[in-house]
Amino acid sequence: MKRYKVTGKDKTILIKKVAEKLNTEISRIAYKTIEESSDKVVLEVWIKEESSENLKTTLISKEKVIVNNSGDIKKSNSTIKEKQELENKNIKEKNDENIKENKIKLSITKEGVYLKINFGDVPFNEVINLISERSIEAPEVNKINQAYENRGENIKIAEYYEGLYVSSIIEIIISEDKMEAYMNFTEPKGLELPKLKDVLEKIREFKITYGIQEENIIQAIKEKKYNLDIVVAKGTKPVNGENASVKYHINSVARKNSLKPTLLDDGKVDFKNLDIIENVEEGAILAEKINATKGKNGFNVFGEEITAKDGRDINLSKGKNTYISDDGNKIISEISGMVSCRDKKISVLDTFVIDSVGISTGNIDFVGNVIVKGDIMPDYSVRATGNIEVKGNVEKAALYAEGDIVIRGSFFGKGSGKVEAQGDVILNFAESSTIQADGNIIANEALMNCKVYSQKKITVIDKKGVIVGGEIKAAEGIEAINLGSNRGIKTDIEVGNNPQIVEEQRKIELEIEDMIKKMQQIEKNIAVLSKLKTAGQLEPEKEDFLNQLISAKFITTKTISDLKIQIEDNTEKGNEVKNATVNVHAYCYPGIKIKIRKGTYFVKEELQNVKFYYEKADVKFTSLV
């Protein structure tokens, strides 16, 4: 089999011209690259034998041919030994740098699979393991031995088979918000794993420039995390600025949500020291604004800036007898008096003190706090924009406060007495009364045959601590020492539903029904008059009436829409309160109906030290720990 040495500028064109000169097909041309540069290619070429018998590479003289760019073949004498020496020299020069960096180098090219082992301590089993791991097809053991013995030389140990060796495919995935980029790479077959530079080059193709996670890439390649989405770039989310807030220099704001009597060591409740009044001096700073902060912009993986929102500013709202400082950042008291906090406004109020309420005083309606040193007589009322404190008894009277109501004596409602507070209600004893509070309701001794509604908790835990008869509803829970009586008096208990919102929803729904009926009548009249107008038979005075009906329709439509929005708002607030319970420390008697959220339980036997709770649409009970 003759071999030729050919020279040209392009390998593909060179092989084509050799095939033409040798009058054979390109597929039958075999070649080996001797030298290759940007402007010159030197190949050793031959025609493939029909048989697979190996040919010995001996020192037999061969004809050396050079195919120039014009396709001419020039003959010259050379030997296989000379060719191999030249090849070895070129390989050695090309791989000198790699020899210093790698102990074992396995190169797979279309010319074949080459093995080079550097000088130094290289265990033979490491060589075998590498070849095995790379799934090299049909390696020649004698060639492997040759490479191991001839350190630094590039020895061909196997042929290259098309389709057998597959490179790893690197895929880059971008998240929808452009804040993360992922790499997914497949397992290579017979070829090396991708390198960091390969992945970075792929990332650059996608114009990803920000937040590149090189450590993630290196670890994923090292641990061979094939076919997994690996984060290779992360953006920085924008950080919105903090909204302006109010810092209070008074205790009333914090204490407002935790107002309750002190439980003494002996188990009794201290009604004498409630600290419901906080006094301030003229010129006192009541609150100050903490200014809003600027937002910090972020960047996505493409380096595009994401604008952050600046914090929202607020304006301080002053209440009665206060003013706002010139810089707009402080609320200051104009007078000496008692602090009251309502609807995010701070006021300083005077306090009205009276011995008793009765025939000599008439009804009381005061802007501020009211302190009654004695009793409130039947059929009188006391109204206050602040708190009401009664040190005596209240009989069949009405008390209304935008703050808290404290009755240190007893409240005998006689069926018509009523107490309403936007804050807490604290009293000693109540009978046949209606008590309503936006906050907590705390009774010292008993609630008997009362209607009691709290948006927070109802507590009766001093002395006998009895709740018996009537209707008792609290959004967050009810706690008593004794519930009901051994006479089986009917008592309705309900927790977990906000009584105020439930009642408000009911009223709104009734109002919507009325407005819909009104709308139907309006539309009926409009239809009749519009028919006359279309026929040109509408009288001038009825034209004005039609216009009024149309305006009424628009107004009614808007009203119905607003009412529906109110229902949606109430729904968002939530009628149901999770974790609401009924706790009874001593006895719970038959005759009690307990409703928690959507579940109902009728007490049919005497229970002790029990907690009722809601679970899986039902009311259950367990021992009170």
Strand-helix topology:
Elements: E1 3-8, H1 11-21, E2 29-36, E3 41-47, E4 61-67, E5 73-79, H2 80-101, E6 104-109, E7 112-117, H3 124-133, H4 141-149, E8 155-158, E9 170-174, E10 180-185, H5 196-205, H6 214-222, E11 230-234, E12 245-248, H7 252-256, E13 262-263, E14 269-270, E15 279-280, E16 285-290, E17 298-299, E18 305-306, E19 322-324, E20 330-333, E21 337-342, E22 345-349, E23 351-354, E24 364-366, E25 369-372, E26 381-384, E27 388-390, E28 394-395, E29 398-401, E30 405-412, E31 418-421, E32 425-431, E33 434-437, E34 441-454, E35 457-460, E36 466-474, E37 477-480, E38 482-483, E39 491-495, H8 499-534, H9 540-573, E40 581-588, E41 592-596, E42 599-602, E43 607-615, E44 618-623
Parallel strand pairs: 23-25, 24-26, 25-27, 26-29, 27-30, 28-30, 29-31, 30-32, 31-33, 32-34, 33-34, 34-35, 34-36, 35-37, 36-38, 36-39, 37-40, 39-41
Antiparallel strand pairs: 1-3, 2-3, 4-5, 6-7, 7-8, 9-10, 10-11, 12-16, 13-14, 15-21, 16-20, 17-18, 19-20, 21-22, 40-43, 41-42, 43-44
